[in-house]
Design a protein that fits this description.
Chain lengths: 268, 238
């Protein structure tokens, strides 16, 4: 394991970025198939509150991130059962409330210098060995859970009621997805930050759509596009001194534009 | 005939609104039960209670052990960003395999779209695909929520004919919600006229003469439907 300790910071950062991009393929695809992009955004915004609370209570940051994400997801699930507020309104309220409370809490913490900008926009060059190990663990967990639950997840994504009648444990599948999402957000925040993390999930998956005929192929291509975006973003940030997180998202958006262009040319 | 589902005093309240009030009826093996009623009468809610998707506020639904249900939902909207062909959609049923899917596609006449993206198939084709998905579960009871939803009138008649054929082939009971009274009423064993509570129920001939039914649907429709039921007192072979 010596080589892991001896990695220089750019190699570490690149490895972290590629790991997150691979994770973003399947989760981003599921997110857009389930029309949960806004839900993902809400979950991502809430993680800032998780960071602040973890710092405030001297807890492990990852623990705080995942816990707060799951609490928010639970609140969303409970609120979506009532009908007096449209679900996009609930998401809007929670998304921005948790972001605002997180910002207030982050500035209120005394004695701990919280670099807010690095959490909002990511600070990939600060990735350390511990972060790499966490990313590796999350990759193993995500792979194992998706392997086991993939068919259930697809069935529940397409028609929840139909899947439930056919005996699919839809609650297990749906909660597993949310937990995986919280785990991925927790390790990805350092890379691209609270504000841009959903983009890294959604954009490569959307770009992959027109190149895939099956769901499995789409997640593979989405992961690949994510990796390309990470490499391009890295290169741009080295070349022109761009902030790395936003540079990666810009690269992903470029890939998406390219895929749109391809389909227009096909149609013509 | 064995009773496979027994609905006992079921009431459903959602958000302080009474959706269903004291519903009682039974479904027997092989029987066709048609639920009719105006919009907002709670027809879909009743199906969902029987499917176990909604828990009744009061009362209970007793079904025989290991009752297998095939469910055909009213609408299926697959996000266009999801690459999914018809065959793969069918294979998502836990009891499906490729051979079974192809056999059903032949029976229901949609083999030509098996490799097509599910978002591109027409309304009539999609209803047949959904029927196939319901049948893949080897059902004792088929639950159909407006099976002819979004199909033209010729297609509707053909679809109901297909449903009846499948019923006699598989010998399963059918519980369906339908607006197309004139098309379904002849094949039905039991009509349940629902408007939050059961207004009236029984054989088609009896129901169409019931004052409650006439009140709910108007004299014209009632007499027209009575005509249909009488027309079909005899059976046409072929």
């Amino acid at each position: 394991m010596d080589w892991l300790l001896n990695l220089d910071f750019t190699t570490r950062a690149l490895m972290a970025g590629l790991g997150i991009a691979i994770l973003a393929g399947p989760l981003g695809s599921l997110m857009i198939w389930r029309r949960m992009a806004y839900f993902g955004d809400t979950l991502a915004h809430s993680t800032l509150l998780g960071i602040s609370l973890a710092l405030l209570m001297h807890l492990n940051i990852y623990f705080g991130l995942v816990t707060i994400s799951l609490i928010i997801a639970g609140i969303l699930a409970a609120l979506s059962k009532q009908k007096w507020l449209a679900s996009d309104a609930i998401l809007g309220i929670l998304s921005h409330t948790t972001l605002a409370v997180g910002l207030v809490a982050a500035t209120a913490i005394q004695g701990v210098r919280v670099d807010l900008l690095s959490y909002l926009y990511g600070d990939i060059l600060a990735v350390n060995l511990e972060d790499l190990i966490y990313i590796g663990c999350v990759m193993i967990i995500v792979a194992a859970v998706l392997w086991r639950l993939w068919r259930w997840l697809l069935a529940a994504t397409i028609h929840n009621d139909l899947a439930q009648v056919e005996g699919v444990p839809v609650n297990v599948a749906n909660w597993a997805f949310i937990i995986l999402l919280a785990l991925v957000f927790a390790v990805a925040i350092k890379l691209v930050g609270v504000l841009l993390i959903t983009a890294l999930l959604i954009i490569p998956a959307s770009a992959a759509r027109r190149f895939a005929r099956t769901p499995e192929l789409m997640i593979g291509i989405a992961s690949l596009f994510g990796c390309v975006a990470v490499v391009l973003g890295f290169w741009a940030s080295m070349q022109w001194d761009w902030p790395t997180g936003p540079a990666i998202v810009v690269a992903a958006a470029g890939l998406f534009g390219f895929s749109l262009l391809m389909s227009k040319m096909h149609a013509a | 005939m064995q009773t496979i589902v027994d609905v006992q005093h079921v009431s459903l309240v959602i958000q302080h609104r009474a959706i269903l009030q004291d519903i009682n009826f039974t479904i027997k093996r092989g029987e066709i039960v048609t639920v009719i009623g105006p919009n907002g009468a709670g027809k879909t809610a009743l199906l969902k209670v029987i499917l176990g998707l909604y828990k009744p506020t009061l009362g209970k639904v007793i079904s025989v052990p290991n009752l297998r249900i095939g469910y055909m939902p009213q609408v299926l909207v697959v996000e266009s960003l999801m690459p999914l062909d018809v065959q793969r959609f069918l294979l998502l049923s836990p009891r499906a395999n490729v051979a079974k899917c192809i056999e059903l596609a032949k029976l229901l006449n949609f083999t030509h779209i098996m490799q097509s993206p599910i978002q591109t198939v027409s309304g009539g084709e999609l209803q047949r695909v959904l029927l196939a998905r319901a049948l893949l579960n080897d059902p004792d009871l088929l639950v159909l929520d407006e099976p002819a939803h979004g199909i033209d009138i010729n297609g509707q008649a053909a679809l109901y004919k297909l449903i009846l054929q499948m019923r006699s082939k598989l010998n399963c009971a059918i519980l369906m919600v339908s607006h197309d009274l004139h098309l379904v009423i002849a094949g039905t064993d039991q009509v349940i006229c629902l408007n939050k509570h059961i207004c009236c129920s029984g054989s088609p001939a009896a129901v169409t003469q019931n004052p409650e039914f006439i009140h709910l649907f108007g004299t014209k429709i009632a007499s027209e439907l009575a005509l249909y039921t009488h027309h079909h007192d005899h059976t046409h072979d072929s």
